[in-house]
Request: fold
Amino acid sequence: MLKLKLNENNLKEEKKKLDDILDNLAQGFMIIDRFGVIQEGASRGAKEIFGNEIETKNLSAILNLDNSKEKIFFKWLTNIWRGLLSFNDLRPLGPQSFETKNGRYIKLDYRPVYEENSKNKIDKVICLATDKTDEIKLERQLEIDKQHASFITNCLQNPVEFVDLMDESYELLEAYSELKELDLGGLFRHFHTLKARYGQFGVRELTYYIDKIESAIENSELEEVDKSVYDFR
Reply:
């Protein structure tokens, strides 16, 4: 009896050690079954990312997958448990990232847990969630800096052409109200030409706004056209 009690205490201690390790990992850790349901034992990191009440919920709901992505997710699970393809081949087909409401970018990865005495029969799948927010912000800032450097170089090489482009932009904005009433097709062509020319100078921020203007014109959403032109100014 005493020996049984000691074994039970040892198991509890080992479980606590394992839980402590998982809770202190930089990654979120959770296990899903063949239906995508998150099992008990999700790490503290996973709960900090996705919320404390994630256990017993479906991963598709936690990731806010839309209908089409949810169908793909369940087909992915079906193929994993079917076992016709290796897990390594299927792993990249699962959801790869998630962006939280407060703007955190989470990278997802998966590891298989095989049934006892089996090398290919899946029992459960571990989902690892890693916060990549700082890395993504740095990458985006580096890309912005790169664009600015390219823009400055192009302007220095073609100063007259850029000044002309700015003048044309202001002239189009001044004529915007009249063109919108008389010729939406012409308005679209003017902005499309501007977008191409700004693209040559590497000014992606402005081409992004012109994209929105073009989309609004194509969809005849006049209020959205006004808003997008205002943002472009």
